[in-house]
Amino acid sequence: MEYISTRGGDSPIPSKKAILQGMARDGGLYVPSFFPSLGPNLFAGIPGGAYPQRAARILGAFLSDYGERDITAACEAAYGDHFDHPQIAPVKCLKGNLSVLELWHGPTLAFKDMALQIMPHLLAQALRAEGEGYEVVILVATSGDTGKAALEGFADVEGVRIFVFYPHEGVSEMQRLQMVTQRGKNVGVCAVRGNFDDAQTGVKKIFSDPDRNRQLAQSGFRLSSANSINWGRLVPQIAYYFSAYEGMVQSGILRRGDPILICVPTGNFGNILAAYYAHRCGLPVRRLICASNRNKVLADFIRTGIYDRRREFFKTESPSMDILISSNLERLLFELSGRDAGRVREWMNQLNGHGRYQLPPEGWAQLQSLFYGHFADGRDTRQAIQQVFTEEGYLLDPHTAVGYHVLQTYREETGDGSPALLTATASPFKFNRAVLEALGRLPDDGRDEFALLEEVARLTGEPIPEKLSELKSLPEIHGGICAQEEMFEVLGRFLRIH
Ligand SMILES: *Cc1c(COP(=O)(O)O)cnc(C)c1O
Questions:
Q1: What is the set of domains in the chain, with CATH numbers?
Q2: What is the distance in A from the centroid of ligand 1 to the CA of 123?
Q3: What's the pLDDT score for residue 446?
Q4: pLDDT tens digits, one per residue of 397-429
Q5: From edge to edge, which strands make up the β-sheet containing 135-141?
Q6: Which residue, 319, 334, 404, 442, has most beta carbons within 10 Å?
Q7: Closest ligand 1 atom to the C-alpha of 270?
């Protein structure tokens, strides 16, 4: 299968090149040239619901230039001991028509591990196949979660180095500890004075500076990025929707072929786009429910057909969804326009120039026939956490709680009682403070992160995940702080090129 750009300017390329390159040179995003039909016998012959083998079937259909052996090796390396659940992405049935897909059993306790545990293997294999003799340097600016997930995924992967910049005093203490204690012979981490935008701007400057890129190339390095517009991060996410559906069929919640609702708490439109792609490949879906927090640019887009980012930005208790420019939406626009790259270019130009664009009536109608969008504010989110904990004894993290609230709203508005799959994107342990606040259980010594973890453990009866409890005793390895102007200098010292 080949990959084409949503802006139409690049020639089709195989998946290895798309994953190495990240973004198309014309500024567009790579999408598969067609959607393979993944029929009901997709998982035939796989014993015991083994997740790595299920994932390999899906990845194999999209990454045809990789070869079965490499795909299987990557899936087995990624979806094994690093996860604290044997099913990797288990489905829990909360009540008759509501199942939760737990995507947070990976090393950083959030769903980005589902992709970032495997993408480094795909990237390393692509690199070997291209045989260019370069070592890839993954450069990341993070507001907290992506940095740690990328560090965990890329640590000790052959042929790849990773360096993460995070805003000094701009991440939570837990997130800082997660990053500065990261082990691995190919990893580097440094704080940048300023906020996330300063770190992000610094990274972008390095990416776009021809002199610095030449200097790196002379030393045998090539920069790359691990952010969510890379096809290598999207394709592993398609797999868990098929796997979850199969799990629901096998546990008798569904008859094969029954359509389901899929509700996804959304930020950059990556996770829900993967559900859409699964649907295009044959997964029976009645409606895709897009759940926003107060930064509800996507929910508004679905409800009005107008994308307008000119609005106030809110810091919420679901910070991983605090986004006003959802990059992956471009891939959906490409489909809504009937794969008309010219149209996509126009909309993106309008977004850049005027901060808004509007779908024509046919496109909007098409969008609404499959998608539903709504949002939850802080109060709705806290209420959802309380309600599900009281009624089901199940603790939602704030992101998943946003999804729960919007699913309820959808059911009230439409009367649709179809079976639903709610994607749980983070463990409640990871967002312990917001969860405890919602339940009115913040301990008196609320400043001590580890006291909060113990309280969540008491409430749920679950042990504190080892990846969080061990932070208390791990040495802090990466203590550097730099100014934005010094970032390249710091990177150079890490790579020993100065
Ligand atoms: C990244 C993230 C999201 C948003 O996912 P998108 O693919 O960007 O829509 C939701 N919840 C959590 C916990 C996340 O880390």
A1: 91-108+233-430 (3.40.50.1100)
A2: 22
A3: 66
A4: 999 999 999 999 999 999 999 999 999 999 999
A5: 221-224, 135-141, 160-167, 187-192, 481-482
A6: 404
A7: 7
